[in-house]
Here is the input.
Amino acid sequence: MSISKFRLLTLALVVGCAAPPVATTVSAQTYQCATATNDEASGLQTYIASVVAGSDSASIQDRAQYQLPVTTASKVVFLTRASDCRTAAQHFYTALGTTPPTSGTIVVIALKVASNRYVVTVVGVNVGEFTPALTFDSKWKLLANVVG
Here is the structure.
């Protein structure tokens, strides 16, 4: 018969014994910015660049859905500082109503589009089978949540 940790701890406190040691492993949470060397990041950058620079009806429709400006493909760049990617990830998780993992490395794909938009996703975070890509303005207000 197994005694749960809670019951064992309660028993130890009632009897006046020291609580048994509980093994825990804690590693620091780190944020890593994905760049063009990551296939998923490269694909998102290529797609967003074609959307903001495109003039066909599909690009216009997707641009409206993502709430992105018309600009040149060269204005779609990766964020590369860990602190910027941490900020992007925190807003991403808040917008989805979830919390990030408490340990390990979180790989963030964060694209700056022109001077006032960010498209953000986190590798491995899915809504069902799909990956959400969120658009924020320059003050990190959520503008669009596109799942696909």
Notes: The beta strands are 29-33, 76-78, 104-113, 117-122, 132-137, 142-147. The two ends are 48 Å apart (CA to CA). The longest strand covers residues 104-113.
